[in-house]
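Retro notes, item 3 of 5
We never archived the inputs for the magnesium ion complex last cycle. Fixing that now. Sequence and ligand:
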Amino acid sequence: MNRVLIVEDEPDVGRGILLVLEAEGIRAETVGSAEEALVRIQHSAFDVLVTDYKLGRMDGIELLKRVKVAWPSTRIVVITAFGTIEKAVEAMSHGATRYLTKPFQAAELVSTVQEALEETTLAHQLEELRERLAQEAGYGDIITRDRQMLEVLAAVEKIAPTVAPVLIEGETGTGKELLARLLHRRSPRAHNEFIAINTSALPESLLEAELFGYSKGAFTGASSDKKGYLLAAEKGTILLDEVCSMPLPFQAKLLRVLEQMEVTPLGTTQPVKADFRVICASNRSLSDLVSEEKFRADLFYRLSVVRLKLPPLRERPGDIPLLAEHFVMRCAELYPMPAKVIDPASHKLLATYSWPGNVRELWNVIQHAFLLTEGETISPSDIILHRVPLPASLDVPFFFDLPYEKAREQVMSTFQREYLSRLIQNSRGNLSEVGRRSGLTRTAVYKIIKKLGLEVS
Ligand SMILES: Nc1ncnc2c1ncn2[C@@H]1O[C@H](COP(=O)(O)OP(=O)(O)OP(=O)(O)O)[C@@H](O)[C@H]1O
Ligand SMILES: [Mg+2]
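Structure as it came back at the time:
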């Protein structure tokens, strides 16, 4: 961890502070503007920021506000000019830890910075401990500081070594698949296959063929033997995604397989012993579906030996800024563009939105903002909310296993959804304008909107 970042637009003053601190064995660096500071701090964290109040374009207070939102644990010392005590007070009210008034003595500087550093030490020790625990636990890419989520992660640790079936419930985009992968990685099955099947994407007959497998000639089109996914996941884990939409007759067949742990490929009579762990994901409450008689109670009990519930993003507001910051950093790694920062007003905007598409939607919004922003700062005008979240179908590799027509239909509806919802937004909901801009008739526009259930506000 880097220790002190000095932000000073007068190079001599900056260098002077640096020398004094270094003479005391304190690691420090200088930059000449608030903008540079924000970029620098993206790449490595600093314990203490020493900033002049008066800088170039963006002043010390503005810098302070931004740093406070994105890196709340950084301590900030603001330097103000002689006789401007009200500026110092203002800085403190925005979260500065300490201030120094010019001209100051070297000893005064050193003791102020040292106090600020001491304050951060304990915070860091705690944070490091937490990070280490998270790493040891292998949570890897699951970012959260929400109590309920952490409880789910702790439960995953406990059940990972077992073969108990697990049911993961949560709205779309809350991280069900991510969690299922984590569960697999943390289990003794980690070095074998993890296979995810979206059961809602397939018609019943195909679902059976894909899961159980078939022998050559079992049905028209079965030109060779095919191993089903349940057997392909031997000694591994299978994720049955969107189990809520599994057709009832298929549910009965699946139940039988799970009871006996035997699979009979279509067109054969010989059951094959299987060893897979089953994880199910559902974005509707399965017990509700049981009471509506859309899901078999006996299958439900078998699948839900362990039941994990992922809270929607709007119920874990603390995760929104955390994930947003994580995602901008991921964008900077992904796209060949300079690092960017999210300004405080944008954080506020993100915090007030309801996130119907949850974490996936946040990821999409941040990517769009990152790619569209010209400068180094993502501001509210770069953030486009109310976009319809992309269907999960496009980010599952299994998509390519779909029959051509089905895949085409999915791509088409995604395209229509993206295209029209953006156009509707840009036309402020005026359908005649949408028609004019798209070259479609108003009726055609209306038909698509109805088909996709888009919202016109
Ligand atoms: N806590 C998190 N930290 C980091 N990334 C996350 C987190 N939760 C979800 N994501 C990301 O959000 C996206 C959606 O997650 P995932 O596919 O696991 O959701 P899901 O619940 O399976 O959604 P659906 O019901 O639509 O299939 C993925 O890109 C995933 O990496
Ligand atoms: Mg999913």
